[in-house]
Design brief:
globular, 199 residues, mainly alpha
Length: 199
């Protein structure tokens, strides 16, 4: 992937936000108040759930994702069967269940103190790749070794399905890196769409 996830993330994000703000059809400022209020009973913030909704389209019928996994809702994969359909209420419930598992994994596996942006970035990442993959990852090892910058750089390695690099996954990893850097308040649909032009 043609970016390193440190100062380069900040430079790229600032360039994208400047481009968005200069468009006559867009608001002069894409920043919204950061919502770091915790989701009830979880470590993640409301911003985390908002960005999850931006990254995941809402599917009301089960489908096979790019890796061949049956999926429904906003990335839900547990006990999904072909032909299954869902309501908005069910999808919201699955989101909470999925993030409860993610939250528990962070509490169980991470042994160092985390800032809210890092918690939210990890939650988005784990929800996408799975708890077992995170548990075995170099990212977790570096994080627990007190190397958060090195852990953040590891995000960029998770942009493949098998041997194939997937631009959509590269985009997700860059969004997660921006969240990690504390930039969640500036992430919207337009910003995410523009990322594909830079990766």
């Amino acid at each position: 992937m043609p970016f390193s996830l440190s100062q380069t993330v900040k430079a790229l994000a600032c360039n994208l936000w400047a481009a968005i703000s200069s468009e006559p059809t867009h608001s002069s400022s894409t920043t919204r108040p950061t919502d770091t209020s915790k989701v009830e009973g979880l470590r993640i913030s409301a911003d985390c759930l908002r960005i999850h909704g931006l990254l995941e389209r809402r599917y009301y019928k089960a489908y096979f994702d790019i890796g061949g996994t049956l999926t429904i809702g906003e990335g839900h994969t547990t006990n999904v069967h072909e032909g299954q359909t869902a309501t908005d209420e069910e999808i919201d419930q699955w989101n909470r269940q999925d993030f409860m598992l993610v939250d528990a994994a962070i509490g169980r596996l991470v042994t160092v103190s985390l800032t809210q942006p890092v918690i939210d970035a990890l939650a988005l990442f784990i929800n996408n790749v799975g708890v077992h993959a995170f548990e075995r990852s170099t990212l977790l090892r570096k994080l627990n070794a007190g190397d958060p910058q090195g852990a953040q750089v590891e995000l960029a390695r998770w942009d493949h399905v098998g041997q194939t690099e997937i631009r959509g996954l590269a985009k997700r990893r860059l969004v997660e890196a921006c969240v990690w850097q504390g930039m969640a308040s500036k992430i919207d649909w337009h910003f995410i769409d523009l990322l594909l032009d830079y990766i």
